[in-house]
């Protein structure tokens, strides 16, 4: 998969978790395999469209999802908490948004987040593109980020700004 | 001082609410999409609004344009994952007063809110 997609995603995983959860992420070696061979109980899914299309999925076990959602929200968020799915979805949304802004020369839109909850589920992808699995380790436990994206066309170069006072 | 938080994520609204409470702002109105926000804006006349961009039913940029049709002065802050220059320029064109990119630190959120209120107070 194109490094123009993977590198921004790795950078945004680290930045989002560090900023919003005060959690340092150690990235393992990305691997290209056909399926997620780990246990997935909770998945935060974002779809991309435009110059690059595909999906980004954050896969967690229940325990890790609860621990990270709690850090994100600043209060205990168990898997039964009414805001559990919302917190995981917003985390996926932030990772995708921060990555999207770093896709150089690509004009990309993202969907609203979807969250799938269920012991050992699978998230099927509609496209046949290669999937990259990025192992992420934190002091709350490990999770996996699955990326299945392809660049369809390059647009004019774009600029990104951190913040603007207007 | 009444502040309206518009975001489809309750988690984000809660994080924002906690920051506002730390800053001493207790009178907070919440809306989960642009349609509800527009109704609550008319009903409650907030003194500041924090608005997400991507929301169901009505997005944040449409909401801001609609608010500006009737109210040119209320401070509006866009708080979003959209950080491309074209998006920021679009928001400025729609007359937002400030722009916060998610992910944000609690400190930076507080700083932007104070900054926006100070500017609004100075020009009032």
Features:
heterodimer; A: 166 residues; alpha+beta; Chemotaxis protein chec; 7-stranded antiparallel beta sheet; 29% helix; globular; disordered C terminus; B: 124 residues; alpha/beta; Rossmann fold; 5-stranded parallel beta sheet; 5 helices; 50% helix
List the helices and strands of chain A in order. Answer: HEEEHHEEEE
Main-sheet strand order of chain B equals 2-1-3-4-5
CATH class of chain A: Alpha Beta
SSE class of chain B? alpha/beta
- Uncertain runs of chain A: 161-166
Q: Kindly, what is the distance between the CA atoms of the first and last residues of chain A, rounded to a whole number of angstroms? A: 38 Å
Number of E strands of chain A: 7
Oligomer: heterodimer
Shape of chain B: globular
Number of strands of chain B: 5
Q: Evaluate the radius of gyration of chain A.
A: 15 Å
Global outline of chain A? globular
What would CATH call the class of chain B? Alpha Beta
Mean pLDDT of chain B: 94
Model description:
The complex is a heterodimer of chains A (166) and B (124). In chain A, a hairpin with a 2-residue loop joins strand 6 (132-138) and strand 7. Helix content of chain A is 29%, strand content 27%. Chain A has a single domain (3-151), classed as Chemotaxis protein chec (3-Layer(aba) Sandwich). Chain A is built from three helices and seven strands; from the N terminus they run H-E-E-E-H-H-E-E-E-E. The radius of gyration of chain A is 15 Å and the shape is globular. Chain B is of the alpha/beta class and 124 residues long. Helices cover 50% and strands 19% of the residues of chain B. Chain B contains five helices and five strands; from the N terminus they run E-H-E-H-E-H-E-H-E-H. The two termini of chain B are 14 Å apart. The relative contact order of chain B is 0.17. At the A-B interface, helix 1, helix 2 and helix 3 of A face helix 1, helix 4, strand 5 and helix 5 of B.
